[in-house]
Amino acid sequence: MIAPRIVVFVVVLLLPGVGAFADEGMWTYNNFPTEKVQKAYGFTPSDAWMEHLRLSSVRFGGASGSFVSPNGLVMTNHHVGERCIQDLGTAERNLNETGYYAPAQDKELRCPQMELNVLTGIADVTGEVNAGVKPDMDAAARNAAQRAATARLEKECRDKTGLRCDVVVLYEGGAFNLYRYKKYTDVRLVFAPEASIAFFGGDPDNFTYPRYDLDITFFRVYENNKPAPVEHYLKWSAAGPRDGELVFVSGHPGSTGRNLTMSQLEFLRDVAYPARLKIYKERLAKLFAYSRTNAEQARIARDIIFGYENSQKGTIGYQSGLLDKKLMARRAAMEKDLQAQVAADPNKQKQYGGVWEALAGAQRAYASFYHQHQLLDGAIGLPQSRLFQIARRLVRLPAEKAKPNEKRLREYRESALESLLQQLYSPAPIYESREILILGQILSELQQTLGAGSPLMKQALAGQTPEQAAGRYVTGSKLADVKERRRLADGGQAAIDKSDDAMIRLAKLVDSEARTLNKRYEDEVEALERKNGSLLAQALFALRGTSLYPEATGTLRLSYGAVKGYVESGKKIPYTTTFDGMYKHATGKDPYKLPDRWLANKAKLNLSVPLNFASTNDIIGGNSGSPVVNKQGELVGIIFDSNIQGLPNRFLFTDEIARSVSVHSAGIIEALEKIYGADAVVKELRGR
Q: What is the DSSP string of 324-380?
């Protein structure tokens, strides 16, 4: 049951006389602007309507999906399910190349590592999180008190309900909500098309429109080895959306930066994004060379290449917004206007006037250790090697479990430990040659960042090149064996201390420095951003008082918009594409080469059926796989991308030509029936 709607206020910083775009906003379910939707589109979603959509929505790690039958059938994007599809494949059975269809449930394949979550309830816990915060606390102490309260609340919730419980930070620390999730860990592959049609057009067409992709995959969740019955699921729309129709997107947008200060935007533009783009470029060059060696290496490199290419192109799009002088001038004017309003009131100036400089100081501090922090402790760094990630978790597990729950790193808290152990013991395949390549490249990046003469690098490399050292660590590790991981985890600190595993030794070697950098980040950056971000939110509440959405946080949000084409450079771009357009787009060469069955079965298709469509819904990375529904709550499509003009919306929303891009519900049925003969899936979607 969802909690009553909380009253929270924030504003988008607007130039005088300029209003927010009609369809702007990634709204929390307990603060959705029903009156605004009614005014714009003449429709008011009821509480029951929204509850049904919320409970039909599914979190896929860092992406989205939805239930589409009462028998636990879940739909998401192919690129969201790619990790499972690749893990289930072999050199002899390349599922990315052939696709997969289970005509009966006993043919459905269990994913080695996948956890799906459904948001079952929301509670406002702002008072509880801030109960231990004292007025005289500095930013670091304040942050520590909030983290301790968060850990306690999550554990209490888990112990009481048995659910996964996460405290979510909203409005830059202005509010805290406790989200309760039902968790599914037995997830099985039902249907996946070939990767070449799911990602037709490849990287050249990524983040563009018009598109011609069947970017879908179906999974089924199981409980007690039986398909999980679900009360809430989305009924299928046979017709799909009409031009101009109101549609809603329910998904898990990752992060936005619409309320960041200029100093925070400049940090991204000048430090973070250039560093990441350099990493993506260098790693992709190595991976492309690796994949050209033979077909098997191309297969096992495919998912990581896709991930880096997607991140690279997305980051280029985000950076384009920050390099746009007009966009940055608008943001600077907005900030200056707010500062002037604060300065005009002595009380507000005293309370909020120092916010901008404090946040600028945090960015300057982070710039001094950003690169080493990201490589040693960030997700983009050493944990990109799966063997290293496993080793780090094993090394940290006994040390963290020995601490009070509120003192632990978040992923080791009681509320999250079960999920961490599930990942730790996953039987997903580990490819030695790929591990050596990735770890070698990251060690090379660390050498460039820390310097070849740094004590840490001298110990890590031991006189070898980064590539040679990576080979030593990977071949000297037994952690690909799940039994060995369990032995070390069960043996506790004594087993870790005695281990001669090469990857365990590397994880132990870098752990002290990684923890030091993480602590610096928490105290010198996160704490200041949390404290001053909260103050900035309070200033906005006091001055503007307009109820609006918080920044995206990777948690469930609801956006609304219209199915709509656009005009670009004088050319009208229609709201839909068709199968006919796809065949005309095909050249017979990658990435515009259609799978054989699409050529063989072309005559069966109604080529005028829509395949993809565009809408004005406000989305960002993490919305991939989100269901698109109409006023009746029927599924009319599934989000899989935006056009390139939509990427700067991360920082400033417009809907002039920025569009979300979805697969059309009618096109999905047409392909399932006439190309794949997936009759069992079609019958289930139609409720038969």
A: -HHHHHHHHHHHHHHHHHHHTSHHHHHHHTTHHHHHHHHHHHHHTTHHHHHHHHSTT
